[in-house]
Amino acid sequence: MTLRGFTVPPEATYEENVRAVVHDKIKFSSAFSGFIHKFHDNIPPPPNADDNVSIHVVNYVLNSVNVKLLKIIENGLDVALFNVYIHPPSKILKHHTKWLALLRGNVYTMTEGAGSPLKVPYNCSVCRGEDHPTGLCAFTKLPGWIDRSQAATTIDAEDDDLTMTIEAGSSRGGRGRNHGAYQNSHGRGRNSRNSKGQRGGHNNRRL
Known about the structure:
Blueprint: E1 2-4, H1 15-27, H2 30-38, H3 53-64, E2 66-74, E3 77-85, H4 93-104, E4 108-110, E5 113-117, H5 148-175, H6 196-199
Antiparallel strand pairs: 1-3, 1-5, 2-3, 4-5
Region (Disordered): 167-207
């Protein structure tokens, strides 16, 4: 989930502020706690057999809340967005979808403004991630990364060169197609009508 709308500069020091807001929203909302109590198949059991499961599952989710700054540029200005990462209580698809709807259906308010989830998450065309635009994908910064668009241009150019080479080779071969044809020991070509083998071929038949 990506939040935007906070009136803060794009600095990582505000990550903790946003984390605290999201943490408290989940902790004090009966909708969130009720959901976690009901669907928590993706949360490991408590370390001690006598621990309260209801408290454990909620605390597990709360302790997993993590926030990272996403700095983007809009109209030439730096803008602060914040990506929120939370361990999902359920791995069953329909329950997970409901969990995401709960998170994205809230507004997260603090002194520095209110953060709302993006209505349409990002969809990076490189890694398919939803927490950054394609232009900020970390994969493209890896050593040895090959840009797909540049690679496609290079391949197209190589294909053009190969086509030209083949066409040029075909043209040369057409002019000298029979120059290297097989000749027998008498210097005549394989297809020569006057070859000795054809003139006297009937004398060599087995009876």
